[in-house]
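Protein 1 of 2
SEQ + STRUCT:
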Amino acid sequence: MNQCMKTEIAARDGDLRILLLLGIANWFLFVDHVPHNAVSSLTLRNFGFSGATDLFVFVGGYAAAIIYAKKMVERGSVVGATRIFKRLWQLYAAYVVLFVIYVDLIGYVAAQTAAPDIIAEFNIAGFIDHPIRTLIRGLLLQATPLNLDVLQLFIVLMAFLPIVLIGMLRWPTVTLAGSAALYVTARIFDRNLLSFPEGDWVFNPLSWQLLFVLGAWFALSGARQARLIRSMQGLPALRIAALLYLLFALVITSAGKLPALAEMVPDSLLSAFLPNDRENLAPYRVLHLLAMAFLFTLAVPRGWRGFRWPVLQPLIKCGEEWLAVFCAGVFLSFAAHFILITGPNSLAMQVLVSAAGILMMTAVAYYVSWSRRQDYKSALGARS
């Protein structure tokens, strides 16, 4: 690979903004996964077309591209691909453990508390009627219990990352165009992966791959594209357009929840954007996320002093250990939901379970980070 690409990757490696955004996405995913939770009204999905999942996939694609493209540039495509598949196996192993324990836990709680409604609510009814068949389907990523769909989506996207990176390192524009073509084809012909026992995936991988690839493209854009992006950031008109679009998205999203506001917006306009097409990743969701990312990079430069603020350290740590935090968040969201449906479902209790869940997720992140450092020190000691 040429020296220019090495320089571009090195310039983006170690960007704390990525960890900060991954931490925010994990916290928002947890809060959003607790049904009937007033705290979820503060998350990203309530202020525009895109949500925490969009942010997670886009930033995840950016981060993965930086990490593994660096390995491909330094050690070759074969070595880089094997490192991706190693990480993919870790993701899948985490999913399997999470899937089995999560489903068994929900079934046990439902039986012990005589609350069968949560079985249907968490989409595990198939395990009652056909446990073995549903388990096999789950291991094949075809059964989708509630709140595990984001991890399933990310596993599928990571499986194709070697192809994406090889294309990005050689033909970035062609690779991005191919991703856009797949996105358009999936939307026009309504193509999706089948779920078990019926229906389609909640997040269509054929459509959502566009956000993942866009993240990789921005991470690995060549010198010419990087100069173009920097020049666009200096255009006041583009900043104003991005702000106006975010304001428009806020109004439309709010109109879907506030009847008084909805009466002030033409029905034809509301019907064009509501209900929000999450399954197939509507184009206006992609544009909304890109507008936010554009303004975020302007407001928060790479060397921002705020990264040293103590209040942001838990978010950055949760972004650093995003997989462990995500897995913990899945269990904690179920626990929070169970507490709310079996106890006093007051606003104070909703705030309490949300805050407690975030604190526990943060504790998991710090423990995993500490444990990894101990293993590293032990390995150094064994070599000396």
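Protein 2 of 2
SEQ + STRUCT:
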Amino acid sequence: MTSLTTNTGAMVALQTLRNINQGLDATNTHVSTGLRINSAQDGAAYWSIATTTRSDNGALGAAKDALALGKSSVDVAKTGMDEALDALKQVKNLLVTASSPDADRSKIQQEIKIQLDRIAGASSSASTSGNNWLSVDSAATGYNATKSVVGSFSRSATGVSIDTIDIDTSGVKLYDSNAAVTTYVTTEINSATATTAAGILEGALGAGTTYTQANGSNLSGSFVADAATTSAAIKAAVDAFTGTTAAGINATADANNNSNRGIMDKVRAAFTAQADGTGGVVTVSTIKDMDISKLTGSADDLMKISNYMSIVDEALGDMTDANTTLGANAARIASQSNFAQALIDANDRAIGALVDADMEAESTKLKALQTQQQLAIQSLSIANSSTQNVLSLFRS
């Protein structure tokens, strides 16, 4: 039966066209965005997982940026340390030159000062983002020798967490302007007058010793023992100072000197025995205060220069260790940064597997839907034209 008011064929054709158009719209969206899951209504579970993973990737990207900033701080400190290490090597070479009996030590001291100033300049310049690891003040409010660099972001069943790379800079610093520590150590090493008194070494060296200063500083000078004082007693005094034995030095002063002062301002001691083994010279000095300008070519003064070389060599060892620490942490940060990027890439692949459209399949589907759309329109046109045939019944 043909009805003018109810065209079943047209209804079916129209519904088919609507469904095809909806599919065509969805496929067009997939092709234009490259995603088959664009919103929660496209697939709530996949959309939720992908959204969370994208959020985690953002956090990992921030951690990677923090790693880059941390590596910058390490690289700047290492550059300053490289410069300081080279300058201190020059100081050691100059001391070797000063060991010649006829050397002009006042001129050599001028060159030594240039190298020491070079170290100070490198230390003060090794600053990034307002942070300086080589020249510090451990008494400053908020100072912390442990520098934490954000290393990674991770998510577990119990929540999210931030992992850090902790760098201990206490062995890296070249200078520490902590006045309280400096005063404590200086007072313990030298007496109030500090011109002839031997300070903490006085008792161990005995009454037959004299104390002479190279430059008038309480932090640089040598103890010369007479024949009555054995080299063993002098060596024991040095050991007491450097902390090998507990006798002869205030334990707090020893800890402050060896742990709370920088490589350049740590007080160091060295001993050279006389040839007959009945005496010798103990030299106590910081690297930054060493001065050989007043020394002569006498046997005692040449032993003092030998002691200064030992002190510089010890400091070179400390700088080498510090440089190794910085280099190892730079490599660790670089490795962690590469790992963070690898995690970001892996998450991107996981997101793609969940929500990305298969462009080959979508392009084929798009062509098929376009063909179906044309056929559906043609079918609707045929269904609508069927009512026109009724008119022929009423023609005369």
